[in-house]
Write a structure and sequence with these properties.
The chain has 378 residues and is of the alpha/beta class. 35% of the residues lie in helices and 18% in strands. The chain folds into 2 domains: 136 residues, Rossmann fold (3-Layer(aba) Sandwich), CATH 3.40.50.10350; 220 residues, Glycerate kinase, domain 2, CATH 3.90.1510. The strands form 3 sheets. The protein has a 6-stranded mixed beta sheet, with helices on both faces.
């Protein structure tokens, strides 16, 4: 029996590698001779760098960069053997890097994310995968672009200061000093939201408040991003402002498309392609995935459903082992998941469940295997 074990992390309690190991231990309690293939997976969000460097035997690179408000922060990214860099923008430009009382999307910048990209280019990376969730910023990716050599100018030819608010004065973009490696590099952007850049469903109106923007700030930021889109359209003759996902991470999705030629795709699909997940499925009898919570929203780009879609193409059953089962979970059964097992084996607090995550995952995988063994005998 060959079993693929490919979970996401259980946020705050187990990395994807730990979760895979625990589930494998549970499987071997019941099927000691089973062939197990443990593959840490992520969906482009938190934990992607760790999961991919683990799965593909890469290395973690540490670099001091400018945080969202200009303070120095130590950020990390993954460097894979195939010359791919894996970057989580939150490591350099994320909301948790800014104390709640100092959050200011008018001034926050993605410059540090650009510094990570620039460092990866200097190391010879030919593909850059960016996960763009959890930003503190609303600058349309202009900070990132500045770190790569773009200049954003006012009507007097002066460079604009950092932050989305300054874009209200944008008049021109100078791309004469852009790092030449940008145009020769493939940018894959893990993005599972569909917000456009501007308007009622855009970056500022939907996400601005959680980043510290007032109602007036939101109107100003939306206007500033509209100015950015107009100048980009005039300067380069292209416009992705309405592209689904352009508004992700305060418009970083838009900036990566316009300034780096980035391609926005489902995070889990990018990851599964990168690790060549389909190759592991050959001759597999069962796939086990999992995450901290599964519910009706999991059909929109979450790891277990993404994996189930691949497994179903080869007729392989899929089990999801999860911490919590939420409303409308029945939707996932129409997307390739055959059964769900909760890791919680009694009434307990969230704190207890998280502190006992490893042993609970071992137990839940073993319980699931017992049911499979019963089925095999029927």
């Amino acid at each position: 029996m060959k079993i693929i074990i490919a979970p996401d992390s259980f946020k705050g309690s187990a990395t994807s590698r730990m979760a895979a190991r625990a589930m494998g231990e549970g499987v071997h309690k019941i099927f000691p001779d089973a062939e197990l293939v443990e593959i840490p997976v992520a969906d482009g969000g938190e934990g992607t760098v760790e999961a991919l460097t683990d799965s593909m035997h890469g290395e973690i690179v540490k670099k001091m960069v400018k945080g969202p408000l200009g303070d120095a922060v130590e950020a990390v990214y993954g460097l894979l053997p195939d010359k791919t860099a894996v970057i989580e923008m939150a490591s350099a430009s994320g909301l948790p890097l800014v104390p709640e009382d100092k959050r200011n999307p008018l001034a926050a910048s993605t410059f540090g994310t650009g510094q990570l990209i620039d460092d990866a280019l200097a190391r010879g990376c030919e593909t850059i995968l960016l996960g763009i969730g959890g930003s503190a910023t609303n600058d349309g990716g202009t900070g990132m672009a500045k770190a790569l050599g773009y200049k954003f100018l006012d009507s007097n030819g002066n460079e604009l200061p950092e932050g989305g608010g300054a874009l209200t004065d944008l008049a021109d973009i100078d791309d004469s000093k852009v790092n030449s490696k940008v145009s020769r590099t493939k940018f894959l952007v893990a993005c599972d939201v569909t917000n456009p850049l501007i308007g009622p469903e855009g970056a500022s109106h939907i996400y601005g408040a959680q980043k510290g923007a007032s109602d007036d700030d939101i109107k100003l930021l939306d206007s500033a991003l509209e100015k950015l889109a107009a100048v980009v359209s005039r300067k380069f003759g292209r416009s992705n402002k309405n592209f689904p996902g352009a508004g992700a991470a305060g418009g970083l999705g838009y900036g990566l498309m316009e300034f780096c030629g980035g391609e926005l795709k489902s995070g889990i699909e990018i990851v599964l392609d990168l690790i060549k997940f389909d190759d592991y499925l050959d001759s597999a009898d069962l796939v086990i995935s999992g995450e901290g919570r599964i519910d009706g929203q999991s059909v929109y780009g979450k790891v277990p459903v993404g994996i189930a879609g691949r497994a179903k193409k080869k007729g392989i059953p899929v089990l999801a082992v999860v911490g919590d089962i939420g409303p409308k979970v029945e939707a996932v059964y129409d997307h390739g998941i055959d059964a769900i097992m909760s890791s919680v084996n009694k009434a307990m607090s969230l704190e207890e469940a998280m502190s006992r995550s490893y042993e609970l995952l071992v137990d839940s995988a073993a319980r699931a295997m017992r049911m499979i063994r019963i089925g095999m005998g029927m």
